Amino acid sequence: MSDQQSSPLRLGIAGLGTVGAGVVKIVRQKAALLEARSGRAVIVTAVSARNRDKDRGVPLTDYAWEDDPVALATRDDVDVFVELMGGSDGPAKAATEAALSAGKDVVTANKAMLAHHGQALAELAESKGAVLRFEAAVAGGIPIIKTLTESLAGNQIERVMGVMNGTCNYILTRMEDAGLSYDEAFAEADGLGYLEADPNLDVGGIDAGHKLSLIAAIAFGTQVNFDAVELEGIGRVTIEDIRQAADMDYRIKLLGVTRYTRRGLEQTMTPCLVPAASPLGQLQGGTNMVVVEGDQVGQIVLRGAGAGEGPTASAVMGDVMDIARGLRLTTFGQPATTLRAATPAKAAVSAPYYLRMALQDKPGALAKVATVLGEAGVSIDRMRQYSHEDASAPVLIVTHKTTRSALDHALAALPATGVMATDPVALRIEKV
Amino acid sequence: MSDQQSSPLRLGIAGLGTVGAGVVKIVRQKAALLEARSGRAVIVTAVSARNRDKDRGVPLTDYAWEDDPVALATRDDVDVFVELMGGSDGPAKAATEAALSAGKDVVTANKAMLAHHGQALAELAESKGAVLRFEAAVAGGIPIIKTLTESLAGNQIERVMGVMNGTCNYILTRMEDAGLSYDEAFAEADGLGYLEADPNLDVGGIDAGHKLSLIAAIAFGTQVNFDAVELEGIGRVTIEDIRQAADMDYRIKLLGVTRYTRRGLEQTMTPCLVPAASPLGQLQGGTNMVVVEGDQVGQIVLRGAGAGEGPTASAVMGDVMDIARGLRLTTFGQPATTLRAATPAKAAVSAPYYLRMALQDKPGALAKVATVLGEAGVSIDRMRQYSHEDASAPVLIVTHKTTRSALDHALAALPATGVMATDPVALRIEKV
């Protein structure tokens, strides 16, 4: 054991919301356990937050206070800068860069910052011999980053799928269980405080898309490319879609899927139909799940709380303890300078799709739709037209396997038929 | 990066069954991927097995051959001894000791060896500055050892549960799905080659008990104590038990449970009833699942293949890649000399129990049983007596929460009633 490893590991924590306060609590309350496991004391030396006077349920007077997180990040008595402020740019990024530039290790829960600047930050860390780790940024307490980076290092990863936004899964579950409309379920989640200040981060799939882009980088050795994530939120999913899906033994989930094929890197975060009896289909409420498929390991499923003080603080402490034990890993599983800039591939693998549309009540409307689909090369597995009271007729179609580009071709051609009463909703049926 | 880390990591593999051959294949076929991820080449230099002439589907002529695994383990051109022979003693133990004594790192899939000699081997490894890792020994491709040791290092672990013998789960699933008797399902599993040469390792719970004892050591910082695992196999579970459990929305699983309470360390590997709708209850067929509960993270569920060439080789390679990357961990998550010798506690936490018995067809038989239970402090939640054609009457009882010792007291007193036609079957109902 080196001298460095037997001296205390000193944390500087920026951001004292529930997760930051949770990390302080663990360090204070589990000092003996942490030292027994890592062979050295883990202590907090300095903290930073916007409001010094707020009661956070944990004593902070033992620690130096910095108003400026950049000043905190570069203190001589800080070995590891723990970034829990959030925000893709601004103080979080400035302080992370300052810490790494000073050769200090960084542990962060900031998915937005890494989704946008992960490549540059990883390169900076590695050029300085510093470690930048982020288990808490992806699926809370679920150890997906460590599993992908370390446990599965002998695998070619074939696909990673995940339900990684608990708020969306809660809304979809409530729509199904309680028969609520999307708006009602959204209002309920809002009332429970489940939504981000900008709800589109949740229901628009952005937050989950950030996470998926980080997973893809590790899984496939590619540079983080959040801008190439095909994003679609859950706002257009109706109770009717959920019922129709259930009728076919499927459930609708906001599902992230990433694959790397000869055509390039596919990253989609969209509502999908998954078999109701599969682990993903059975996942109810606010829990997260990540499914990894490797050429050796087969399918691994990881399930747990994706957010909250305890689970997120647990993940932060996992990274801190790795550093305390002297485990020094690259940010994305291989040196950042060796990560490939992958070509984005839109839904590279063909799949069946669920389509819902409303047609104007004209003779031959359905035939026109079928013709357009056929001309685009999209063949129909089943089709249902429902009885209706208003002027438009609801139609549900399940296609045979098709490429997303053929489907998009068909969807683009549908308006010219003159029979569409609304824009169609198209949801991929993911084989899981 | 040190000189040591940029030179190739040289493996010596003893045991060339499917897993050993699988490891050789991965090293040969994924050389570029492994080097990109670890920063150094990973190569095989020498191998050993009982039969040199057998075709293992992978070329071995590039490697030195040793008939004696001890000779292999101590070769100058071997950095990591990969022990895939199996057996708790004999050559596996001798070679592992030789490798560790020579300061070489060891990666093993040998649960029996570690369950019996884990403490001594870990102490030997740590005294020599060597690493002894064993992810592949527990639940195949599921990264439970890494998750417990590293990801959850900031948690006090409260309970770990697991279905960790795929053969038992296959037999129980087939009994339920196909209405097979235990003997029929056993014969089917045997025909498919699912059973160990000594089937009692599987159906007697020994193999799964080995795994549980290793998990407990890491979870609670205690010395491995396989002898204290309360073991009960699945041989007495009948189709009737499975149907009765299903009728109450439960499934029967060979479930490992370990907890550490003030009364001591509880380790049980017994058939239990778990809610059919829980992740454990939904686990069908040969798949494994481990559920970890930590005070911070809440409940984490890990699911995947528990055996087979690919999943087990994947886990071996995860450990090898950790070593290639310079991650050096203690065997059980803290120095072996600091692990506590825990007092074994028999089912320390109280639980409801499912009891099945057959009573002689005498007046007052049921009342006598109820009286014995009541005198032992075991109260009855529900009781059913079934119609029957033979001379004994099947009776099912679900108790309220009780301690195992109170229940054992009652079970010991039942024969004196003179009304028991068979020994009762008692299965714990585990809250999951």
UniProtKB/TrEMBL annotation, chains A, B:
Binding site residues for NADPH: K111
Please give the pathway this protein is involved in. Answer: Amino-acid biosynthesis; L-methionine biosynthesis via de novo pathway; L-homoserine from L-aspartate: step 3/3; Amino-acid biosynthesis; L-threonine biosynthesis; L-threonine from L-aspartate: step 3/5
Q: Which residues make up the binding site for NADP(+)?
A: A14, G15, L16, G17, T18, V19, G20, A21
Q: What is its EC number?
A: 1.1.1.3
Q: Which residues form a coiled coil?
A: none
Keyword annotations for this protein, in alphabetical order, are: Amino-acid biosynthesis, Methionine biosynthesis, NADP, Oxidoreductase, Threonine biosynthesis
Checking InterPro entries in the record gives: ACT-like_dom_sf, ACT_dom, Asp/hSer_DH_NAD-bd, HDH, HDH_cat, NAD(P)-bd_dom_sf
Protein's name in the database: Homoserine dehydrogenase
Q: Which organism is it from?
A: Pelagimonas varians
> What taxonomic ancestry is recorded?
Bacteria, Pseudomonadati, Pseudomonadota, Alphaproteobacteria, Rhodobacterales
Q: Which gene encodes it?
A: hom
